[in-house]
Amino acid sequence: MTRPLLPHPLLTLVLMATWLLVANTVTIGHLLLAAALGIVIPWITWRFWPDRPRLARPGRIPAYVGRVLADIVIANFEVARQVLGPVRPLQPTFVEVPVDLADDFALTVFASTVSLTPGTVSADVSDDRQWLLVHALHADDPARVAEHVKARYEAPLKEIFGC
User: Cα separation of 160 and 57, whole Å?
Assistant: First the structure.
């Protein structure tokens, strides 16, 4: 397999922009260094990258991102209330969430999304990729937590990735 000059063009642009933001200046030298980093890093690591994900419905991504961002904000307030508010006993627990996602990238996005939302953390994925172990800060009903996570995050990902 031949190595393309720009195996991941979007990553090249992100690396260049990141370098310029970190440097906090735009000079010819920094532009050249940003371009060199943006070309060399993806070029060296291209074999380690998995196949590009296949998106069945990419138009659903903005709604999913919006939902996740809104959930992060709301969950931050809920966790802050639980931690800083009147003392109420928390019921932390591990919840096994059955997974219906066939694509590894979609499963990674799903597990990452669960971890991004305050109050829940993805702890493990079963070897057969059929279960996601989630730690919930407070779960009165673990089955309800599993249903919520599946409906809120997995179902849209199944549509986006077509799996």
Answer: 5
Q: What distances in angstroms separate CA 49 from CA 11, 37, 44, one per listed residue? A: 12, 17, 11
User: Which tens digits make up the pLDDT trace of 127-163?
Assistant: 999 999 999 988 889 999 999 999 999 999 999 999 8
Q: In degrees rounded to 5, what are phi and psi of residue 48?
A: -80, -15
Is the confidence at residue 1, as pLDDT, over 60? no
Q: Look up residue 65 and give its two tokens.
A: 């991102």
Residue whose pair of structure tokens reads 């903005």 in the numeric block: 62
Q: Which helix (H) or strand (E) holds 125?
A: strand 120-125
Q: Are 161 and 103 in contact, with CB atoms under 8 Å apart?
A: yes
Residue 83 — φ and ψ, nearest 5°? -80, -40
Q: Is residue 67 within 8 Å of 123, Cβ to Cβ?
A: no
Q: Report in angstroms the alpha-carbon separations of 50 from 25, 45, 63, 102, 104.
A: 34, 11, 25, 15, 9
User: What pTM was computed for the model?
Assistant: 0.73
